[in-house]
Amino acid sequence: MPIYDFSLFDPPAPWAKVILRNPESNKELPDVPLLIDTGADITFIPYNSANELGLNTLHDKSYEVMGFDGSISIASAVQLELLFLNKTFRVLFLLIDQEWGILGRDILNHLALLFDGPRLEWNKHQAESQEI
Fold first, then answer.
1. What is the pLDDT of residue 88?
2. How many CB atoms lie within 10 A of CB 74?
3. For position 62, what pLDDT does the model report?
4. Is CB count within 10 Å lower at the N or C end of the chain?
């Protein structure tokens, strides 16, 4: 079972390492860290990961996003493939300028995960979703 992260988050938080793939070149970037955030509507990918894959932002796609503290910012979008728990997700992802991304409900709602807070770990639980 993957454990919660103690080094970046206080209190510790669930996180996952995913594979990102450029759909045009098939170049893959393994072990991209994402915070599992059931309160986030959408998934954010680190800028550095998108740059490493050679992805270009979609010039006609930018979105106003609001943080949990009410702050508003504009996020650029990219098209890529995210591989997680033996599933491939092909949706529009937003970019974030930090070393880890955020795995939001646009992906989480297609998975069954079990969070064990007392043990500070999480696990896949009977996931039966399809690729999106």
1. 97
2. 9
3. 81
4. N
Average pLDDT of the segment spanning 93-122: 95
Helix (H) or strand (E) holding 76: strand 72-84
Cβ neighbour number for residue 35 with a 10 Å cutoff: 19
70 band by pLDDT with thresholds 50, 70 and 90: confident
Q: pLDDT (tens digit, 9 = 90+) per residue, 24-41?
A: 999 999 999 999 999 999
pLDDT at 132: 54
CB of 36 within 8 A of CB of 16? yes
CB atoms within 10 A of CB 55: 23
Relative to beta strand 44-46, strand 87-96 is parallel
Q: Give the single-character DSSP code of 1.
A: -
CA 98 to chain centre: 12
* Burial of 101 from C-beta contacts in 10 A (0-12 / 13-18 / 19+): buried
Q: Are 74 and 126 in contact (CB under 8 A)?
A: no
